[in-house]
Design goal:
Pfam families: 2OG-FeII_Oxy_4. This protein is of the alpha+beta class and 226 residues long. The protein has helices spanning 11-21, 32-44, 64-69, 72-85, 108-114, 117-127; strands at 23-27, 49-53, 59-62, 92-98, 134-142, 147-151, 158-163, 176-179, 185-189, 195-199, 205-207, 218-225. A hairpin with a 5-residue loop joins strand 8 (176-179) and strand 9 (185-189).
Length: 226
């Protein structure tokens, strides 16, 4: 199982920042070689599903097998529906894989770490939240043009994203953006390799659309604690 680096952080300092802003970011929470293995699994060994929002606003998951049965015209219509839905409400378009349900051998060691009591306790110490229980866990890939519009998750006490994107540039988009009640951008987190971000579920946030000229996909593991 990958090793979680817990002794290099100012726990009290992170807890104070989380209490004040509702979000924190940690650099290098996995050893470099372990993080590289997770990146390789995401890039080369993950059987991605297509995750979209339908025209009537319902989440939909299309497996690789299902996609092979659909014509290019139908797939394009589904993608267009998700984009049009984004103009008026919640929508997203990305690749993903449920790591709670899926049997993904390549990502299993890291997924088991994130499902462990040790990881929940570590996140609890960083945020001052006790009794955290993992509610969801997903591998996620945003490609050119993919996005997730502004949303909150009031049912989650804490959300996290562990990023495994290499060589990203800020002008390629894909930032996790935090929105104020008035619609301003209060802050943003650029995809950085081996960065762990934690935020309160009720924080309005989005994933900026990945630019058409971005040099590669944006990879991460995301999860929610109840």
């Amino acid at each position: 199982m990958p090793t979680l680096l817990t002794d290099q952080y100012d726990i009290k300092g992170y807890e104070s920042r989380f209490t004040g802003k509702g979000r924190i970011r940690l650099e290098g929470a996995l050893p470099e070689d372990h993080a590289q293995r997770v990146h390789h699994a995401l890039e080369q060994q993950t059987p991605w599903d297509l995750q979209i929002v339908t025209k009537d606003g319902k989440p939909a998951i299309l497996s690789r097998a299902e996609l092979e049965t659909l014509s290019p015209e139908i797939i394009q219509t589904r993608l267009q529906d998700a984009a049009e839905r984004a103009q008026t409400g919640l929508s997203y378009l990305r690749l993903g894989l449920d790591l709670i349900e899926a049997d993904t051998i390549a990502l299993a060691p890291f997924a088991n770490l994130l499902k462990s009591e040790a990881f929940a306790a570590f996140c609890g110490r960083l945020t001052g939240l006790s009794g955290l229980e993992l509610a969801s866990l997903d591998a996620v890939c945003y490609r050119n043009g993919d996005f997730f519009t502004q949303h909150t998750d009031n049912s989650a006490r804490l959300c996290f994203e562990w990023n495994f994107t290499q060589g990203w540039r800020s002008d390629w988009g894909g930032q996790m953006l935090f929105h104020s009640p008035s619609g301003d951008i209060e802050g943003g987190i650029m995809p950085r390799f081996n960065d762990l971000s934690l935020c309160a579920g009720d924080q309005p946030r989005s994933i900026a659309s990945v630019a058409p000229y971005a040099g590669g996909p944006r990879f991460s593991i995301t999860g929610r604690f109840g």
